[in-house]
Amino acid sequence: MMLIPTHHFRDIERKPEYLQPEKCAPPPYPGPAGTMWFIRDGCGIACAIVTWFLVLYAEFVVLFVMLIPSRDYVYSIINGILFNLLAFLALASHCRAMLTDPGAVPKGNATKEFIESLQLKPGQVVYKCPKCCSIKPDRAHHCSVCKRCIRKMDHHCPWVNNCVGENNQKYFVLFTMYIALISLHALIMVGFHFLHCFEEDWTTHGLTREGTAEARLSQEKTQPHKVSSTECSYFSPPTTVILLILLCFEGLLFLIFTSVMFGTQVHSICTDETGIEQLKKEERRWAKKTKWMNLKAVFGHPFSLGWASPFATPDHGKADPSQYVV
C-alpha cells in the first residue's frame, strides 16, 4: 500500500479551474499604511489586561513596599532602575507582539488573476484555505481566532491576544524572557526583604512587643508625617506580608510558565519547526539550516544589541511568490 504524505490531506488543488476562484470575493481594499493590527477577541483582550495588571502590581509592591522605604539608597536605586527597565522592556515586547501582524496571508487572494500570476507548471501544487479563501504559502496555517492564515504560525497566545508567527515571534520570545527575568528579580528582592525586616523591624517593632505599638501610636500623633528610621514598609506588617506573599506566588508562577515558554520557543527556532508542525508531525519540506542561521532569520541580521530590543524590527525580506507553490 502506498503511503501518502500527511500534507497531502490538506486542501490541494492542482489546476486553477479546480480552485473555483469565482467563488472567492476579491481581496478587501488594503487599509492605509501603518494601520494597527489588533485582534478583537474578548478572551484575548481580558488576558492582555490581566497581564498588564499583574506587571503593574509587581511594580507597585517592589517600589512602595520594598525599595522606597528602604534605608539603603544605593540598593534601592540600583534595583529600582534594573526592575523598571526590565518591566518596561517586557511591556514594550508585549505591545509589539500584540499589535504586530504575525504574518497574515491576504484574505480572499484565491482569485483567477492571482492564480494566473503564479504561472503554475504541470505537477505543481498550491493550497487553498476554504475558510478565508486564500492561497496558502508553504508552512502557513489557519487560525480560528484571528480568522486568517498565518505564515509559520506557532500557536495562538491569548496572553498577547495574537498569533505567534513569522513576523512577531521575536517579540513574543523577548516578552517571555523579560517576564521571567522580572519574576526572578522580584523573588530575590522579596527574599532579602523578608530576612532584613524579620530580623530588624518586625520582630522588635511589629510582631513581638506590645509596648512598641503604643510607642508608635504616640510617635504618629506627635510626628504624623515622619517615618521611623526602622520602618521596612509604609504599610503595617500584616499588610506587607500579604502583599509580599501575593507577589511571591505571582513571581513563582510566571517564572516557571515563561521560562518553559521561552525554552520551547528557542528550541522551535533552532530546529526551524513551529509548534503546530511538531504537534501534527508534518513532513519537513523546507531546506535545513544551521541553528545560528535560524536565530538570525527570527531576530534579524546580523547579531547585535537589537536582538534584545523590542523596538528593533527584524528584516524578513519580501514575500517570495514561489512560497505558494510546492
Automatic annotation (TrEMBL):
The gene is ZDHHC3. It comes from the Eukaryota. It is an enzyme of class 2 (transferase). The keyword Transferase applies. One of its GO terms (biological process) is TRAIL-activated apoptotic signaling pathway. Belongs to the DHHC palmitoyltransferase family. The chain crosses the membrane at residues 45-67, 73-92, 171-195, 241-262. It catalyses: L-cysteinyl-[protein] + hexadecanoyl-CoA = S-hexadecanoyl-L-cysteinyl-[protein] + CoA. GO terms for cellular component: Golgi apparatus; membrane. Its main location: membrane. This is Palmitoyltransferase. It is a multi-pass membrane protein. Keywords: Acyltransferase, Membrane, Transferase, Transmembrane, Transmembrane helix. One of its GO terms (molecular function) is protein-cysteine S-palmitoyltransferase activity. It holds the Pfam family DHHC. Residues 128-281 form the Palmitoyltransferase DHHC domain. Its EC number is 2.3.1.225. The keyword Acyltransferase applies. It comes from Myotis lucifugus. The DHHC domain is required for palmitoyltransferase activity. The lineage of its organism: Eukaryota, Metazoa, Chordata, Craniata, Vertebrata.
